[in-house]
Amino acid sequence: MQEGVEGAVLNEGGPWGGSGGGGEEESRRPWRPKPGKGGSTAGPSALDALIRRGRARFGGGGPGNFEVDGIWRWAVLAAVLLWVAFTSAHVIGPQQRGVVTRLGKYVGTLQPGLGFSFPAPLDIVTKVDVDNIHVIDIDTGADGSSGQNLMLTGDENIINLAYSVRWNIRDPEYYLFELQDPDGTIKEAAESAMREAIARVTLNDAIGQGRSLIESRVAQRAQELLDTYRAGVVIQGVAIKQADPPQEVNDAFKEVSAAQQTAQSYLNQARAYATQVTARAEGESTAFDKVYDQYRLAPEVTRRRMYYETMEKVLAKTNKTIVGPRNVVPYLPAPAAPAARAQEEGR
Hints:
alpha+beta, Tetrahydropterin Synthase, Chain A, 49% helix, 17% strand
């Protein structure tokens, strides 16, 4: 019994019997070998054919094929090393910060210089420019169709404002991850602060000399709002570019402003004339006090001198006619000198 089992295991014909059998067993073999030239029916097994096909697909097993496999292995290794080197070392500029996220979670910020992290895609480094000044222009209302940004002042007047907001990034990690739309949030915060500031001043203050105060208030209030949102930005300043009444009443308002400016001009001229008259009166009163002091010391002399001075002032600007009595020669030539008389006689 044991001998029969060993023969079956070592039989080269496969599990369906040897090659020498025939008949019914031969017809049940699934891979039936074809007879060769020598009449033998023995051939390669399915395992041998599978091994030969694998060697042919992967380059075979010769020495030349082994060298090609080695080159490909070194090339793949070099590519992996280059990938690790280029995605692990990061050069951060002086005006930049590198925000590091590991599998989508914030883990740190790289400062200017050469920084390192785990290779991608494990760590992703996003460079953010923190020195660049961004400008947002706000010159239309919420609808954006009318071309006006109308606000209500403290004295219940309507004003059309156009202004700009300057800001830069302070905390890049907050700027990237805390707000979904940083620009939109900054614009809404600035507009809210501007409406609050305009509601506390009059129309004349908003149009005239109060602009600088309004700009400082808006910048401070907008910064407070953005800090509560953890926006990670700094408001550098707010500049009002236009402050006019609505377009429907702009012409009438310009006429009123022109009339007010004319009235103010007349008031300024009247104040200047009053100042001149007051100064002249004060000077005359001072001079009179000095004359009075002299009059107290010598009344007669002072009185006569005042009379002469007054007559000089009066007669200096009038035409004068002198009437003399009859038979009076107004001009008598003086007698000639002796030397001149002798000279005339000698002639």
